[in-house]
Amino acid sequence: MTATTQQQTGTTVMTNVEAVRTTLHDALVRDDRVLIMGEDVGARGNVFLITKGFLEEFGPQRIIDTPLAEASIVGVAIGMAMEGLRPIAEIQFADFIYPAFNQIVGEAAKTRYRSNGDYTCPMVIRTPYGGGVRGALSHSVSIEALFYHVPGLTILAPSTPADIKGLLNAAIECPDPVLFLEHKKTYRSVKGEVPGGYYTIPIGKADVKKAGTDVTVVSYGYNLHQALAAANRLQSDGVSVEVIDLRSIRPMDKTTILDSVRKTRKLLIIHEDNKFGGIGAEISAMVAEEALFDLDAPIRRLAGPDVPAMGYALPLEEEFLISTDEMVHAMRDMATF
Amino acid sequence: MPKTTATRGRELDRAGLSDEQLVAMLRNMLLQRQLDNRGFQLNRQGKIPFALGSEGHEAVQAGAAMAFKRGADVLVPYYRDLGLALGVGMTAFEILSSLFGRVTDRSMGRQFPNHYTNSELGVLSISSIIAGHCTHAVGVAAAFKYRGDAGRAVLCSTGEGASSQGEWHESVNYAAVHALPMIFLVENNEWAISTPQDLQMKVANVADKAPAYGLPGAVCDGFSPIATYVTVHEALERARSGGGPSIVEAKCYRYLSHSTDDDDRTYRSRETIEEHRKLDPVPRFEQVLLEAGVIDEARVKALKQDVLRETNEATDAAEAQPYPTPESLYTNVVAGDYRPWQEFHP
Hints:
The structure holds 2 protein chains of 2 kinds.
Chain A: E1 5-6, E2 11-15, H1 16-30, E3 34-38, H2 54-58, E4 63-65, H3 70-82, E5 86-90, H4 101-107, H5 111-114, E6 124-129, H6 144-147, E7 154-156, H7 161-173, E8 178-183, H8 186-189, E9 191-195, E10 207-210, E11 215-219, H9 222-235, E12 241-245, E13 248-250, E14 252-253, H10 254-264, E15 267-274, H11 279-291, E16 300-304, H12 314-320, H13 324-335
Parallel strand pairs in A: 3-4, 3-5, 5-6, 6-8, 7-8, 11-12, 11-15, 15-16
Antiparallel strand pairs in A: 1-2, 2-9, 7-13, 10-12
Chain B: H1 19-44, H2 58-67, E1 74-76, H3 82-87, H4 92-100, H5 132-147, E2 154-159, H6 166-177, E3 182-188, E4 191-192, E5 195-196, E6 217-221, H7 225-240, E7 246-251, H8 270-277, H9 281-291, H10 297-319, E8 341-342
Parallel strand pairs in B: 1-2, 2-3, 3-7, 6-7
Antiparallel strand pairs in B: 4-5
Helix pairs in contact in B: 1-2, 1-9, 1-10, 2-7, 4-10, 5-6
């Protein structure tokens, strides 16, 4: 699980899961207010082995195997945060976060507001989300749209190791509660260079992962990597696609999206979460309000279907998820509209 | 097994409390009663939109607050804890600022009345969601233990209805597993709005649940501030000295409707309330102190006048304060200036 390649530039090549692990490890070393708490984060080292060895290194006072109860994992972390610690609470799978909904929406997100700043809630809730790993109905969901309606909450969903490190550091530094989403299919399938040393990436700032001129694609999560692959495929056909990695879902980056859309005049939004009421709806509305007359084509969304979740059987998972071929198709359609 | 402590007759078992402390508890109870009445009066006069009474809880709260160590302990109250708030140092002016929704309220008029916050006094901000705050109390106690803060404990209070919530169970269980320095004070007034205790639980006492968590549970006479003080003091001392958490249940009663928006005639008889009125803790404790010679009639009269004066002055002072500005609606969502759509200017 340690970094695989040390390069002369001071960067290290690692997977997404390694980026989460090393960033958490460094935070524990750096700041003794930081604690990790959740189900099976101790001896087991988390179900994805993210915290493997942490218990031995930092002890049970800082790496806390909690009772199996999500509401109190988040609720106890809120109390710790209100009392000055910097807890990192883990929800084992995003699908298990529902019992903690009240604590996140009703309590954490409102602590600063309801006390007018007398109390604050600087904490991080980390959770793996997303499908494509045969996780069926309760180990595959995307939860971002359920929470992005909530003022007071910050929601981050970085997709590359370098962004994970910078944004997880920013989340731990953040004086307010952060929901930190890690797409589990990217954990071991995505690798990249990560700068050495401590750094943060500003919350709320998107990143242009590929520059282009014909179509703007806004995405995040595993879909982002598929969108990049699709865009690269189209490059040889002379179709130039700009791919924006949203990275931060609340707040969202208006400037980067509008600058790109005003250049390409076409917007395609891609996300795994359900289309109806999803993140794409808010982006579409913003662009329609701000840049309707700069557009040369209707805004288009590729997103999860309106069914409760993806099934366990392979065809049910594949039917739910957006394929790279579908993305190529949609991008080409948009470019030639 | 739960145990019961109680004051008996004229032989005042003062539990080590000085005359000054006993009178302070009586004054707290008188002030609670006066402020409760004021809240309902102001509501009926159309001056405030909402008030919530603690009438019947005065002894529990005066006694528990006396066991609270100011500057060390943290209070995580629920919404019927006027006497606890006063007892740990909040003022009548703060209470009335909240009732009027004025700028001098610490939440700046955001919170419902009785949803206190005071980080300087160690009163944690709460929401209205029943038992959600219990998990936060556990977190504060966990922070005490993690940092090795010696001699500190968390006092977390609820009504008996809260013990039906999953988060109450999760909190008690978590605190027990990690042997945290805190107590769960249950102010059992028999009613959760209109739902009586026998529709909340099968057991006679919430404290009966304690053994299932591997914790001590105690039941005390919540109509007696001394009995409550003794039980809460013992539990807090145990928590402060590393002995872990426990459940303390104080039996009391809710004399008023749930709030100014409730009408209890729709679900309970007047006779039941009259029967419980005989136990009214305020005149009862006054009598106890008179009979024990701790105070005399003149002192009681002076106390009542002083409490009325304080309430009147606080009412006038709070009412004279301005409302928060409409612009204040937008502040303190998160640190700094917050917009869900971020703009970056090069």
